[in-house]
């Protein structure tokens, strides 16, 4: 990959501009740069500007090392040294009309903001659930921290309700992570992310480690919940075909930059950036014809 | 024509759950034939037994019952007979980050099988290493021979793993998810390398995967496994375009297809609308 010098901004179509004009922003990132302060420093995210709209699913596609996870973690202020956000603004536009400067948040204010407004579903549910406490204890932990006024009774009800929402039998509340299948663990993670009714959920490869059939069921569940509760999703994956099926818009990242940003329909029909075309051609169609062109490599 | 055949292969694993002991039948009566110059794909989800089939063929596991035949002869399980079998049948593992020794350069990984299997000795070894590197499209070979695994990308490492498998003069490759750990944009490159070797070197390839699309496009025959059983097998296009078994249909319906963008969203909306009314 050759070094890129100037960032002209992502390629987008007119259809995309028209689509976006009808939407209300919920999270705006402007000129975000994130650097890993190692030797030599790695600029993982380079001057990225991105707007997430209320209720939309925005796909963030790219290969390993392109900066997609770093960017998403930056949106929720989850980056830790050696990663540092060297520049940029992130603004959260709350449904009640208040605007929050996410970068300026600190201490209690940051703790109150995270998970309540923007929650996260991490990649490996295997490693994200605490193995030595029950599912109930982990779900209740979220509620006792963020909703201290809830009664014990109400908390218990909410936990059961959350599991039901994601299609897990509430009887499993007393189970430990190792007693659940991979799919169930990921559902529990989604339940936990939904506990506070966030307006934005960031999902980092939430289904990558799962079998296709289970993956499909979970995606279906996410889509159903999105339609019901109207939260916006940033969905990070390298699996472009999957994104094309679920996302409203897709941002394609390479080497820390968004090279193309468009509606899923447009991105599939008329990919403008060479890299998007290359990514799309990396997935042969299941039912269509395919011949691998050796010259293209 | 040279063939590798498995007949009624069964594998039981002993399992323990607390104080209870039992057996788990990981593979139950699997039969197929892999011919030189052909690719057979075994598809299924995790736990379907597809990797166990691969490991039995590579003789990393001993079958509980059934036979493996090479050119119609039952295979040897020890000593010289085993060494002869390993000359012919080699494995490419899933994770090229784990399957190469980080301490040694590429040349070491390729020289060893050449020497051990008596393919080359003395001054022949280095040219043989270079030939192997060229055959997996790593050019210039002198440069790659001196590299260590960490200096290469995942795709390059997997090419080394393929070269290593070819080194003993293998006629059959068992590739267990050979591209699932690689970045998407280099997967097809590695698969088409396997396809080229299969064509040009008349190699038989057993391609173990969960990806139906590449299974269809890169193999002649597909074997679909579910919990140790073969539920469907046949020519690739037939299995994918005209599936007979319900499980194959489920798998196909669950596979994302870029040409059906927005499908899941629209399905869910329709479902919810139907529920509401």
Automatic annotation (TrEMBL), chain A:
TM regions (residue ranges): none
Signal sequence, renumbered to the chain: none
Domain ABC transporter as annotated: residue spans: 27-280
GO molecular function annotation: ATP binding
Pfam family, one: ABC_tran
Compartments where located: Cell membrane
Membrane topology: Peripheral membrane protein
Record InterPro entries: AAA+_ATPase, ABC_Ni/Peptide_Import, ABC_transporter-like_ATP-bd, ABC_transporter-like_CS, P-loop_NTPase
Keywords noted in UniProt: ATP-binding, Cell inner membrane, Cell membrane, Membrane, Nucleotide-binding, Translocase, Transport
Superkingdom, natural source: Bacteria
PROSITE patterns per record: ABC_TRANSPORTER_1, ABC_TRANSPORTER_2
SMART domains (UniProt xref): AAA
Family: Belongs to the ABC transporter superfamily.
Protein name: Peptide/nickel transport system ATP-binding protein
Automatic annotation (TrEMBL), chain B:
Keyword Membrane in annotation: no
Organism superkingdom: Bacteria
PROSITE patterns attached to this UniProt entry: ABC_TRANSPORTER_1, ABC_TRANSPORTER_2
Keywords tagged on the record: ATP-binding, Nucleotide-binding, Transport
GO MF term list: ATP binding
Domain ABC transporter residue range list: 4-252
Descriptive protein name: Peptide/nickel transport system ATP-binding protein
Organism annotation: Isoptericola halotolerans
């Amino acid at each position: 990959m050759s070094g890129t010098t100037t960032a002209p901004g992502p390629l987008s179509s007119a259809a995309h501009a028209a689509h976006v004009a009808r939407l209300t922003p919920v999270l705006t990132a402007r000129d975000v740069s994130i650097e890993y302060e190692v030797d030599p420093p790695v600029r993982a995210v380079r001057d990225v500007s991105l707007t997430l709209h209320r209720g939309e699913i925005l796909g963030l596609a790219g290969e390993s090392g392109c900066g997609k996870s770093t960017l998403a973690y930056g949106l929720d202020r989850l980056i830790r040294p050696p990663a540092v956000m060297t520049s940029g603004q992130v603004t959260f536009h709350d449904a009640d009309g208040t605007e929050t400067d996410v970068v300026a948040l600190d201490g209690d204010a940051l703790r109150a903001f995270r998970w309540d407004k923007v929650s996260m579903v991490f990649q490996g549910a295997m490693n994200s659930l605490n193995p030595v406490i029950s599912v109930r204890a982990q779900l209740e932990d979220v509620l006792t921290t963020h909703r201290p006024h809830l009664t014990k009774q109400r908390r218990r009800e909410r936990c059961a309700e959350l599991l039901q929402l994601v299609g897990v039998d509430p009887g499993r509340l007393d189970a430990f992570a190792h007693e659940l299948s991979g799919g169930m663990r990921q559902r529990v993670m989604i339940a936990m992310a939904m506990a506070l009714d966030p307006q934005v959920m960031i999902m980092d490869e939430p289904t990558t480690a799962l079998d296709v059939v289970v993956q499909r069921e979970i995606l279906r569940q996410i889509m159903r919940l999105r339609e019901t509760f109207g939260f916006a999703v940033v969905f990070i994956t390298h699996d472009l075909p999957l994104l094309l099926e679920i996302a409203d818009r897709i941002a394609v990242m390479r080497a820390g930059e968004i090279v193309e940003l468009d509606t899923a329909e447009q991105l599939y029909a008329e990919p403008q950036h060479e890299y998007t075309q290359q990514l799309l051609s990396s997935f042969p169609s299941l039912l269509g014809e395919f011949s691998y062109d050796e010259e293209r490599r | 024509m040279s063939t590798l055949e498995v007949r009624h292969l069964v594998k039981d694993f002993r399992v323990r759950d607390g104080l209870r002991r039992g057996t788990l039948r990981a593979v139950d009566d699997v039969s197929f034939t892999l011919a030189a110059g052909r690719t057979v794909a075994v598809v299924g989800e995790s736990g379907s037994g597809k990797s166990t089939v691969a490991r039995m063929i590579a003789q990393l596991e001993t079958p509980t019952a059934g036979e493996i035949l090479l050119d119609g002869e039952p295979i040897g399980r020890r000593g010289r007979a085993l060494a002869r079998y390993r000359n012919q049948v080699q494995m490419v593992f899933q994770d090229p980050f784990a399957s190469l020794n980080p301490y040694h350069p590429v040349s070491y990984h390729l020289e060893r099988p050449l020497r051990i299997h008596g393919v080359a000795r003395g001054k022949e070894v280095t040219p043989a290493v270079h030939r192997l590197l060229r055959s997996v499209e790593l050019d210039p070979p002198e440069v790659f021979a001196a590299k260590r695994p960490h200096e290469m990308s995942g795709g390059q490492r997997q090419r080394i793993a393929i070269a290593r498998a070819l080194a003993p003069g293998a006629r059959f490759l068992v590739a267990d998810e050979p591209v699932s750990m690689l970045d998407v944009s280099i997967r097809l490159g590695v698969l088409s390398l396997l396809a080229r070797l299969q064509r040009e070197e008349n190699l038989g390839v057993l391609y173990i995967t969960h990806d139906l699309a590449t299974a269809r496009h890169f193999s002649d025959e597909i074997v679909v496994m579910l919990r140790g059983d073969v539920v469907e097998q046949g020519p690739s296009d037939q299995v994918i375009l005209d599936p007979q078994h319900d499980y194959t249909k489920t798998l196909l319906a669950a596979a994302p297809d870029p040409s059906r963008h927005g499908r899941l969203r629209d399905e869910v909306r329709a479902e919810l609308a139907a529920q509401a009314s």
